[in-house]
């Protein structure tokens, strides 16, 4: 028996998990979840409908791509996507958080404002491959409504769209310059940071046709990196750069995270602290209100998602584990990227992900 991944070609986080599993050489098959899998496997095990979900060959269910990746890193051994040296590892964890939690803005904007009809049909094709087109469109529209509903909640609207597009186009230019010099973020091996970025940059921003045309036109080297990521020609190969080098070409990308994402995370943390003080022991909600953000010079408000803090905590835990020269090297890197706010971030409560749910540890 092999492992099963319940996932879908159009899903952001399925793309992250799939790219990793394929590079890692994991023996698995991917199954598109139908209603029965949803009701009999995913919802009973996870408590809600979400993909990707992995069912291991021993029946264990894993959810959350970071948990899935960490499971196989330990279970399979062999070359790792986690750099061993401090600056690279810390920067890679930051970029995983940035990709997973911040680049959903451009991903969802371009999908729903440039590819809506296509994606509704695509959802339908995945659900009922043999049905006539009209029926596929009707089924896809039902599923699509839920995801379309996330768009305003994330803070994507007429006022913020110009900023989201300006920021995304500038990010593409920065990444295009980086990939002119390096195949992956930190050398010739993909890192956990590459897997964070591939989620949004594959399904929504490369595979959706109108988005893919934009990426090919503005940043062809980013499109080539996407192809290297999702069709690894040599799994388990490559090296991270020597001497713990973080390429200069990544500094603008990290600066963007510090400038746009970190203030939003800081406000999310403050709001979560208030919520936690007022609701001790209560189940953690997905969002603790709407927090202000600025992207591409334009300001808006988006759902303050507690999960984003758990992703940031992964990077901050690593920083906290370092001492002496190693810690000093990471703090110097933070200063280079304008990330001093992360040195004493002050997470209001420690978070843990237990039984597929966020809890205060
Ligand atoms: N952080 C999770 C996120 C998974 C996720 O958001 N999956 C999306 C599809 S790409 C989903 O199923 N969303 C349903 C929902 O959020 O209600 C992970 O890394 O697996």
UniProtKB/TrEMBL annotation:
InterPro entries: Glutathione_S-Trfase_N, Mito_Protein_Transport_Metaxin. It comes from the Bacteria. CDD domains: GST_C_family. Residues 6-79 form the GST N-terminal domain. Signal peptide: none annotated. PANTHER family: METAXIN RELATED, PTHR12289:SF67. This is Glutathione S-transferase.
